[in-house]
Amino acid sequence: MVKSGQQLALxxxxxxxxxFSHLNNKALEPILRQAHRIRCEKxxxxxxxxxxxxxxxxxxxGEIMLSRVTNDGDSYxxxxxxxxxxxxxxxxxxxxxxxxxxxxxIKPTIIWRISLNIIRNLMKxxxxxxxxxxxxxxxxxxxxxxxxxxxxILNAPQRIACFLLVHCPAVxxxxxxxxxxxxxxxxxxxxxxxQETFSRxxxxxxxxxxTEVIGSKLKIKDINKLxxxxxxxxxxxxxxxxxxxxxxxx
Amino acid sequence: MVKSGQQLALxxxxxxxxxFSHLNNKALEPILRQAHRIRCEKxxxxxxxxxxxxxxxxxxxGEIMLSRVTNDGDSYxxxxxxxxxxxxxxxxxxxxxxxxxxxxxIKPTIIWRISLNIIRNLMKxxxxxxxxxxxxxxxxxxxxxxxxxxxxILNAPQRIACFLLVHCPAVxxxxxxxxxxxxxxxxxxxxxxxQETFSRxxxxxxxxxxTEVIGSKLKIKDINKLxxxxxxxxxxxxxxxxxxxxxxxx
DNA sequence: CGACGTATTGACTCGGCTCAAAACCTGTGG
DNA sequence: CCACAGGTTTTGAGCCGAGTCAATACGTCG
Lengths: 250, 250
Known about the structure:
2 copies of one chain form a homodimer.
Chain A: H1 5-16, H2 25-34, E1 36-40, E2 45-47, E3 55-61, E4 63-69, E5 75-82, E6 86-87, E7 101-105, E8 109-115, H3 116-125, H4 129-153, H5 156-166, E9 176-179, H6 184-191, H7 195-209, E10 211-214, E11 217-220, H8 223-230
Antiparallel strand pairs in A: 1-8, 2-7, 3-6, 3-8, 4-5, 4-7, 9-11, 10-11
Helix pairs in contact in A: 5-7, 5-8, 6-7
Chain A binds a DNA duplex (30 and 30 nucleotides) through helix 7.
């Protein structure tokens, strides 16, 4: 099979993804053949999880906000995901409860749309694929459970501190500079707090742990101070590796 | 294989469980041979998820509270589970993050301890077993996601109202009487609120929807009133089947 | 430079938590 | 059958964290 540049990009993307990386090119061929590349502007909605859509998606570049819409039209943010993330796959075994998820691009974005039937074939034909999917799913659930924990027992400054630690490039050395991904309103929404509260809570962290805010960068002077500010209230083994932002599937 | 009465009870239990029900007796034989029956008093701890314990458990009778313990010794309730529920199985593919879950009996309880290796063999040898496990896991995650939603956008009275609806024997007729399972302090803990708040919130529901509290029974005069009190704030399709308390695995 | 979106600050409200006391239940032994 | 002890549930008073609404400051892109 002769591949176009776009298909090669997809192949590379699949190889870097935790779900597909263990598959060889032959197994990936049906995906390359069928997958559909979609370019989106900022602020577009991508339909997923609705009855007709028997597809999952993988992000090549850009950023997508996943949210849920309630019956009275209110909405709340589930997560913000980027390159390599897969969404729409949790309907693979049919569960109607998932109908209300909304994906919104928050940057110009390129995604690939893959038929769920092709994924289902992989489950049947490729050894370990189902197990691998289960593994990813279990990992994601764990992170969701942690989310429940944090929303229950951490206050706003602690939740933000945890977010910063997760996004820290280095876990064990300080000072270290974290560049805040996407904007503060979105981060606040993901953490389930208002932007005003976010702003104030950042001040509290600053005073409590000596972390400096410089525009969209954040300088952590003493990472251990930040850890002790939040991690004792968490159930993860201390010190946790702060890797709880690994690959999730939706 | 000649089976004892206890083993027959286990067999029946497995047949009634969503995870094992599709397996025939031959496939279940290794479980019957190896599983270990454990009787516990009230208020005992059952070690799970710790490194040495390569087991999962299924409850034959009684009630168990699952909770997590934070690094500073605080704890919070994850769920309260009973007959047929499986816990300890989410470590099947190894994920160290799960180390801090605690199971506590809240009634005299009988559980069966099953080696995870036997489950792993089922994954290898029995068609559809892995897929079935994945299915259950996806369903459980969905319910966890719903939990996050409810903790984010429902207030205390609404959370309780939803709990009552879930435990309603009949979904579409009223008046109907709900008998409150386990005690109010525990329910409050499961919902992530204090018992005092629970008590007050119950009064609010009573006034808003005309629900009567009679000891540990609760008479819902108009179930639609109760539904409209809470469900419009939820993302599930309305009217939801209030079945979101189905089999979960932990 | 002006305009629009983003971020911060201030003043106020309110839901749920805390601590403490009272009321209610349930089982036990005299 | 009653008295008492232990646990559970309710009620009260006060506090505090986060939400709300509104005004101001900051950034950045035309």
